[in-house]
Amino acid sequence: MRTMKSKQVRAAYHHGDLKNALMETALVQISRTGVRALSLRDVARRSGVSHTASYRHFSSKESLLAAIAEQGFRRLSAAMRAATLPHADDPVAALQASGVAYVEFGVSYPEHLSVMFSVQLAHAHYPGLAQASKEAYALLTAIVHDGLRTGSLRGTEERTITLAAWSIVHGLTQLITGGQLQTKDMPSMSARELALAVTTLLHQGIV
């Protein structure tokens, strides 16, 4: 007997949306067993379609993961743009807003995050993924560049400031999604509250 999920995916397939259906099934499996255990054949089976049908969209497990990573980077970029839009004239506020948006994205899409950064994908083989990741990074570097140009941020090493800003929010996101902050010594704070607190410490050092 087919599950309701399989029927939904089968319907999506007949409506020409098998690609997204396979990606959604893969994300569910990643949340359960991790990236390494993912199998394209198993994803197809769980989606209610043949392995041959899945090949029409993904030639390998790597190509499936590349599509998920690209989707993740595009969603991250959209979240960062939306967060920084109200702060177009304030690079410091924009930098903090982008960091908070990064953490909130990672907490909302932990499976995407795990694929985006824990899998060694050959970006040269997937131009869409390469472009999406560059665009996300470019948003951050543009904010830092503008901050240095206007004197809002201290220092001259644009690359170092960018790396520090990225490392702090990425590290915090990994700690939250990995459950390492769920201890009696950590006060009960939302991901947004934690992101605001941590990014404030960074800004105190570069403003």
Beta-strand percentage range: under 5%
Distance between the termini: 62 Å
Helical percent range?
Answer: over 70%
Rounded Rg: 19 Å
Q: Give helix and strand order, one letter per element, not per position.
A: HHHHHHHHHH
Q: What class, by secondary structure content?
A: mainly alpha
Anisotropy-based shape = elongated
Give the number of DSSP strands. Answer: 0
Number of helices: 10
Average residue-wise pLDDT: 87
Low-confidence stretches: none
Largest sheet: none
Description:
This protein is 72% helix and 0% strand. It has 207 residues and is mainly alpha-helical. The longest helix has 24 residues, at 61-84. The chain is elongated, with a radius of gyration of 19 Å.
What is this structure's SSE topology?
Blueprint: H1 4-14, H2 18-33, H3 40-47, H4 51-54, H5 61-84, H6 91-108, H7 110-118, H8 127-150, H9 158-177, H10 191-206
Helix pairs in contact: 1-2, 2-3, 2-5, 5-6, 5-7, 5-8, 6-7, 6-8, 6-9, 6-10, 8-9, 9-10
